[in-house]
Amino acid sequence: MDERKKIVVPPSLAPLLLRVGLAVVFLYAAIASFVEPDAWIGYLPIVLRHIFPANILLGGFSIIQILLSLWLLLGKKTFYAAGVSVLMLLGIIVANFGAMDIIFRDFAILFSALALAAMSYQ
After folding, report:
1. 74 vs 16, 43, 69, 92, CA distance in Å?
2. 3-state DSSP call for residue 122?
3. What is the largest CA-CA distance in the chain?
4. Confidence of residue 1 (pLDDT cuts 50, 70, 90)
5. Torsion angle of the four alpha carbons 26, 29, 30, 33, in this order, in degrees rounded to the nearest 10
């Protein structure tokens, strides 16, 4: 007879961990871009930097990331928050595909957002 105790993980734990993980990533990037914008401006698509001032573009994108982080942390309409996360990450990957040795981690974050979307789909 197996006397090991079975650990029961509530089904809501995995989505919570994914939401917090994604929120932390977006929040870190947003705050870091406000603290040291010169380190982040180069990741913005050059086409957009020719249309809009880079500091305005970066600030706007960072505000969107902060709002997305809060949305993920609130846990409301999670499927849609995950969908926005997927689209944002796809945009980041496509816009910076030439910097694969830097953005390769974004694929893991992208698949985390996809997993969250799949788990929260109703």
Report:
1. 10, 28, 9, 24
2. coil
3. 70
4. low
5. -170
